[in-house]
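ok so i was messing around last nite and threw this chain in just to see what happens. nothing serious, just curious
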Amino acid sequence: MRSYRRGELRFDVRDSGPADGEVVVCLHGFPQDSTAYDEVTPRLVEAGLRVLAPDQRGYSPGARPEGRSAYVLRELVADVLALLDAAGADSAHVVGHDWGGAVAWALAGRHPDRVTSLTALSTPHPAALQAAALRSTQALRSAYMAFFQLPWLPEKVALAGGGHLLESSLRGSGLPARYARAYVQRMAEPGALRAALAWYRALPASRGYGAGRVRVPTSYLWGRADPFFAPAAAAGTRAWVTGPYVEHRLDNAGHWLPETRPGEVAAAVLRSAGRA
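result:
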């Protein structure tokens, strides 16, 4: 399967591994795409798993609807449910990083029957993240989100000079250069960065559609040197999982775990799938 449809939208997806294998869905964040999992996927396929890595809404050229309301969390979760239906999968092991982590938390919380296990990368539980903003450095770490709420200016600044500022910022946050260059090139496609930023701009309209307490088996991997998420948010995540929970703190890791720590990511997923 190279693509799937939800209504008039067409999503690109990388489908790897045996067609009859247990399904793993890998969800990327901003400003990534499905290639973020390029070094994770072979490790999962080798264990007999089928890996579906979609380019999510706004990142697939055929799925860039206009307007921020098209990017509320409810729609993002529904996109993943449509992927599972298209793949003939009743449920899947779901992996999510960054914004993909927010989608994964909501999917697991609201549709536990479709999620065999959750592996959250970097992104704390949204409720823990919100609580940490009131008592830690989290509000400062998330300040860039306020800038992203502005119309047109973030796009203009980020892509000025061929995307030099965006690429420099990504590299400065610990993303390897080859990924930073590739992601910036994708964001330079017509409408791509505007659509990607619409995820942030839709945040106010997504309130009330949270993950709640998550009862599916959950693994949470986070880097101690992550510049975007405070340790307090990571520490508060456990309270929002009522099912089996394992936390992996990677002391020498930053934010971009699929790209920089693929071995640890794959190992966590394989443990959740009973393949370790």
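not much to say yet. The mean pLDDT is 97.
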